[in-house]
Input
Amino acid sequence: MMAMPQPAGPRRPLHPHVRRHTRMVVTMRLALPALAAVLLASLAVWTQFGGDSGLFRLTFNQGHREEFSALTMSNPHFEGVDQQQRPFSVMARKAIQMDKVGDVMDLEAPEADVTMESGAWLAINADSGRFMRIAQKLDLEGAVSLFHDQGFELHTSDVQVDLSASTAHTNRPVQGQGPSGNMTADGLDVLDGGKRIMLLGHAHLTIYGGDQLTEAPKP
Output
């Protein structure tokens, strides 16, 4: 005769410690695959951004160029000499470096001056400008004012200055005054550090001589 199995008795409740262990095992089974996927994705991103070198570097896949962060300087002062060994200086309220090597600088409230062998000077200022340090060129714009120690004062809206050659040029309208009267023109050339100032285009001079007023238009 085959013995019949005895009916199971009531199931004993699991100990609280056993229930906690069981829940932890189930949770780990679900969490570990997700954690592994996150780690693999992080490793791929880190490798792409140069993490294998120990430094965090932002790089671009096209061209492999490193990100450039502009350098800002307060009250910069640049000095040099022109082709005739005459000293010049360039100053500004603020300069922003526009390239990695520090050649191109955008200037806020720039000022420049050149000193001649005789001690005479030529000074120029503007609202803003760009200084090409290696080429020794200065592009000025905004309210540009030029001053000569002989008493000339000229105003225009932009000027290109070649500090190496001690010249300046603009094709914008110019107005100003000097010891003998007032002047207007369609443009301006300053040559040889201010030894020669040429009014371009339709120039008009109003010359004061004693009690007489003379208008001298220049074609």
